[in-house]
TrEMBL record:
Keywords: Membrane, Transmembrane, Transmembrane helix. It comes from the Bacteria. GO terms for biological process: anaerobic electron transport chain. It comes from Providencia alcalifaciens DSM 30120. The keyword Endoplasmic reticulum does not apply. This is DMSO reductase, anchor subunit DmsC. GO terms for molecular function: dimethyl sulfoxide reductase activity. One of its GO terms (cellular component) is dimethyl sulfoxide reductase complex. PANTHER family: ANAEROBIC DIMETHYL SULFOXIDE REDUCTASE CHAIN YNFH, ANAEROBIC DIMETHYL SULFOXIDE REDUCTASE, SUBUNIT C. The chain crosses the membrane at residues 6-27, 39-61, 81-100, 112-132, 144-163, 170-189, 201-223, 230-254. InterPro entries: DmsC.
Length: 258
């Protein structure tokens, strides 16, 4: 658990990007209204700012963040830092043109930019960890789990703000990908780092159990056509905790190949 700031930074950032994406699509589909979209954007902005604030603890001194930008275009870490800033900036602009200077056209452009920059930010994250010297990370499973958080975390949050159908679909896609790939992932790690992998059983077990419970709850709400806000918010929070647990296991796999 030596990289907790990065655990929160990546999971919360990816979930916020997923919420921005799904809420925008849901609004275009007519399944949520303007107020629900505004709520989604506020929640997404708060979540990504919390993630960014906690992630800043990793660099120690705040000014070091600007040093990280010197390698934009050639350094995956610099690209990640830059795109996280662009995402936050576009998200802030969306809220600004929604609540302070009410300009519909600029709000729309900012929202589209937030969705696109959020996806670019999520894409940049696994580029940082596909390192040849760290066999446990240099695999397609790293990329997969970074994207599944967008679907799982974003889907759970989307359901909580009212995008029930699209949110459930996203959550189903993400959880199916996690469950379907887990055996192969464990087999891969059993060859590259059996001892380290065994130590993460508790974290992965918590993730899978919570996701399974949340899946059953979300499906139950959909079948009964009842979606009380408090249980949905509780499920969304539990899902984020599950993804944080899975990400802790990922960072605990850090090991230089000899």
């Amino acid at each position: 658990m030596h990289e907790l700031p990065l655990v929160f930074f990546t999971v919360l950032g990816q979930s916020a990007a997923g919420l921005f994406l799904l809420a925008y699509i849901a609004k275009k589909m007519g399944s949520i209204d303007d107020n629900q979209l505004k709520t989604a954007n506020i929640i997404g902005f708060i979540i990504v700012m919390v993630g960014l604030g906690i992630g800043a603890l990793h660099v120690g001194q705040p000014l070091r963040f600007f040093n990280m930008l010197l390698g934009v275009g050639r350094s995956p870490m610099s690209n990640e830092a830059f795109l996280s800033g662009v995402f936050v900036g576009c998200a802030a602009a969306t809220l600004f043109f929604t609540h302070f200077v009410k300009q519909a056209a600029l709000r729309e452009l900012s929202n589209i930019a937030a969705v696109i920059s959020g996806l670019a930010f999520v894409w940049s994250i696994p580029q940082v960890y596909n390192i040849a010297t760290i066999a446990n990370w240099d695999t397609q499973f790293t990329t997969l789990q970074m994207w599944t958080t967008l679907f799982v975390g974003g889907g759970a949050l989307a359901m909580a703000i009212g995008a029930r159908g699209l949110g459930l679909t996203s959550f189903l896609v993400g959880t199916f990908a996690i469950f379907a790939s887990r055996a192969s992932y464990q087999a891969f790690l059993g060859e590259t780092a059996p001892a380290l992998s065994a130590e993460q059983t508790g974290f992965w077990g918590f993730q899978v159990i919570v996701l399974a419970i949340a899946l059953a709850a979300f499906v139950g709400f959909a079948i009964k056509q009842r979606s009380p806000k408090v249980p949905l918010l509780t499920c969304a929070a539990a899902v984020l905790l599950a993804e944080l647990s899975g990400r802790i296991a990922f960072y605990n796999l850090w090991q230089i190949t000899m």
